[in-house]
Amino acid sequence: MKYDVIIVGAGPGGIFAAMELAKKNKELKILMLEKGNSIEKRICPKRQTNVCIGCKPCNITTGFAVAGAYSDGKLSLSPDVGGELPEYIGYNTTVDLIKYVDDLYIEFGADKRVHGLDDPDKIRDIRTKAIQSNLKLIECPVRHMGTEVGYTIYQRIQNYLINDLGIDIKFRTPVQSLVVEDNSVVGVVAKGETYRADKVLVAVGRDGSEWFTSMCEEYKVETKVGKIDIGVRLETRNEVMQEINEALYEGKLVYYTPTFDDSVRTFCSNPGGVVSTEYYDNQLAVVNGHSYKSDNLKTHNTNFALLVSKSFTEPFKEAVAYGKHIAGLGNMLTGNKIMVQRYGDFLRGRRTTEERLMRNNIRPTLIDAVPGDLCLVLPYRIMKDIDEMIQALDHVSPGLASDETLL
User: Fold this and answer.
1) Nearest to 267 by CA among 307, 298, 324
2) Nearest CA to 21 among 6, 11, 10?
3) How confident is the model at residue 282 (pLDDT cuts 50, 70, 90)?
């Protein structure tokens, strides 16, 4: 089975690579291999029953468009957030590329409204309060598609790739190994079949990172240890976040903590959203969040991540394993579920109980979250960074440092 190009992974990287290749050369024979399901078969029973049944592969973290299809559906339209692309291709080129991809999403049905541009006076007030608290506000326009609308958009994209561009996509076909001849990748092995191609593009995400690491080790490809983000997802009432939610939709704030001078940032805010669980390798539960577009599906809560970015030096080489180890400690204490703790209990070093959780004004939107003690999971340095970040954010969004805020 010979192709011009094989793409491993049907996440955004693989999707848009396939789209651009096919548009530039309609004669190319392109194959995409994805370990998960097609978009129409990606159904998570837990969203209806609140009980995970352990789908294999997980329909949240694998499948066409991967986790992005089932998350908040936000497009962050700034080169200052979301990775290191400007370092590779230049700032201005990144700006142009963001505009190009954003226009594609609009063609496939994304909402034309962009948040974060409508009210400069309110944004100025937020920026002023941030500066007074030593926080840096990164102004980033956001296009919000919504969880349920994002699903529809990716359905259209999948159909376009298959029906209009003639791309061969094989689902539930995980790649087991690369085929290497004369120090070049000339194909892959998937489900026992060998597929050969002139070019092989590996576009795996978090779920495929360990497999890709093993391939690099097997074929002596030099790798570099990247940063790792460790943190929690914070949940509070919409009233506390109202100013940021209305003016920016998502407030991207960065803080350098006074004790350790570590970088802590807010990430992936979901106004009126829900906290959710994702399972990696069908066993490791990690926390995420999403928000629907429809008002009747909105909740009373806003959730967002607080992430501490850490870089490690030699001899450390296992960034992903380190992150999984910390998540695994939480899973060990909760029976593979997500732990939740009130901020007041977090400050006092005590375990949150079901009784204290039930009398909270803020009720967790993740129904099966287990009350517990993050002190038994997170390293002290990370806990201190998170605490200092919450105290700083409280000056921008008063009430965030309430005892009742959930972590």
Assistant:
1) 307
2) 6
3) low
